[in-house]
Design brief:
With 470 residues, the chain is α+β, with helices and mostly antiparallel strands. Strands 1, 4, 5, 6, 7 and 8 form a 6-stranded mixed β-sheet that branches. Strand 4 and strand 5 form a beta hairpin. Helix 4 packs across helix 6. It is flat and about 105 Å long. This is IS1182 family transposase.
Length: 470
């Protein structure tokens, strides 16, 4: 039989292969090595970048950063698995120069250097901008929920606590009633010792829940996670309610590079537009022109302030629809606003003057009486009055809605949403392995850095990247 045969393991080689020969010249791992070596890690604030004159010598943070970038590029987040890879993976042996830190050292690096990793992400965007990969002509913003390391079962709300306390009271009263009934009869089939133990357990559990509820009330919170206090219970599309964080991405429309990212505890995107846009603008050195987002970012105050900074904002309005009865009904767009009269003109030609304001909803309210005498009432309202609302920042909302053209919304979806799909694949199917907001943010930043690096390699190629980093 003529099969290919390997070299006998016992054979001695005259010239052992060099570690340099472990990876080819056009391998992406060489880009990781060159990029990290180009950074000033001390200036970025990495711990142990500067060593003491005494004590055990630490691992260089650059080596551990290289290991993590490689790990997330290959969808590996387990520190114990990374420890093994340092002994058996030729690419890692080349990248780490045969260093093999233990899993605890690897885990501590990720936990302790979150802010520094974010600065590395910012520095890579500077590199991409110089390479012409980022322009700022159009940046799409969106958010997605990532699960925390904690279990969903550990999340509790005030309402759930009150319900559990009510059920405990019922159980306790039931036991007490049975004890009282048995004492009146003088004979009992109950085991008093076991009943007393059960009551003691229920009372202790009740006290714990009462303390938990009291703490929530005192801190003004409606919920908390018992094992990971930073994580929040929030809605997540098809998955329903999850315990986790709301990740915000600002992605450049040129090559889908994440210009800015943030891991937040906000359950919705309603108040994220201005802070994310401002941070994106700083990352691009004020070379930002247009921002687009979905209707979840439709906040008049946020949009108005963003527009006042000179940016074009494209966001569809998130408005209620007149759905009374059946058939076609007049919507707000069918009413004309008259600025001089500060009133709306209805399709029948009647004026709806300003009536009052709602500071809570930031709305002006307009209405007129006598709609029952109008021949068009059947297409407008069943009541005698038709109300129209106008937001304090109505002009800003209308301008943003007009800028949110169908073409831009399609481009928004194609720009920002694939980044979350890739990041969730990189980051353990969208679930963090680190506990707490700070550590989870560090993990998310490493995922974003790995994603951006691979996108740049796919566009420029390894050799072009190496030439620019030289």
């Amino acid at each position: 039989m003529r099969h290919l045969e390997g070299t006998p393991r016992s054979q001695t080689l005259l010239l052992p292969p060099s570690v340099e020969d472990y990876v080819p010249e056009d391998h992406p791992v060489r880009v990781i090595d060159a990029f990290v070596d180009s950074l000033d890690l001390s200036e970025m604030g990495f711990r142990k970048a500067q060593t003491a004159h005494t004590g055990r010598r630490p691992y260089h943070p650059g080596d551990l950063l290289k290991l993590y970038i490689y790990a997330y590029l290959n969808q590996t987040s387990s520190t114990r698995r990374l420890e093994k890879e340092c002994h058996r993976n030729l690419e890692v042996l080349w990248l780490m120069k045969q260093l093999a830190p233990d899993f605890k050292t690897i885990a501590d690096f990720r936990k302790d250097n979150g802010n520094a990793v974010r600065k590395v992400c910012r520095q890579f965007i500077v590199f991409c901008k110089q390479a012409g990969l980022v322009s700022g002509e159009l940046v799409a913003i969106d958010g997605s929920k990532f699960k925390a390391a904690a279990s969903k079962d550990q999340a509790i709300t005030r309402k759930q606590l009150q319900t559990q306390l009510g059920k405990l009271d019922q159980k306790i009263n039931s036991y007490l009633e049975k004890l009282a009934a048995s004492e009146q009869k003088g004979e009992s089939d109950l085991n008093n010792e076991k009943v007393t133990e059960a009551l003691a357990y229920l009372e202790a559990h009740k006290a714990e829940l009462q303390d938990e509820l009291k703490t929530l009330v005192e801190e003004g919170k409606t919920q908390h996670c018992r094992t990971e206090s930073d994580a929040k219970l929030m809605k997540s599309g098809r998955e329903g309610m999850v315990v986790g964080y709301n990740a915000q991405n600002a992605v450049d429309g040129g090559h889908q590079l994440v210009v800015h990212h943030e891991l937040t505890q906000a359950g919705s995107d309603n108040r994220q537009l201005e802070p994310v846009t401002q941070a994106t603008r700083e990352a691009l050195d004020d070379d930002l022109k247009t921002v687009v987002a979905d209707a979840g970012y439709s906040n008049g105050d946020q949009i108005s302030r963003t527009q006042s900074s000179g940016l074009e904002v494209g966001i569809p309005s998130n408005r209620a629809v007149n759905n009374q009865g059946s058939g076609e009904y007049f919507q707000k767009r069918d009413f004309t606003y008259l600025p001089d009269e500060d009133a709306y003109q209805c399709p029948a030609g009647k004026l709806l003057p300003h009536k009052t304001i709602s500071n809570k909803d930031r709305m002006h309210l307009y209405a007129r009486s006598g709609c029952h005498r109008c021949p068009l009432q059947a297409k407008c309202t069943k009541a005698d009055q038709r109300w129209i609302t106008r937001h304090y920042d109505e002009d800003a909302l209308e301008k943003a809605n007009k800028a949110a053209t169908p073409e831009r919304m399609i481009r928004r979806m194609a720009t920002v949403e694939p980044t979350f799909a890739t990041l969730k694949r990189i980051l353990n199917k969208g679930r963090f392995t680190c506990w707490g907001l700070s550590s989870a943010s560090s993990e998310y930043s490493l995922g974003v850095l790995s994603y951006n690096l691979m996108r740049a390699i796919n566009v420029l190629g390894v050799k072009a990247m190496m030439a620019r980093l030289a």
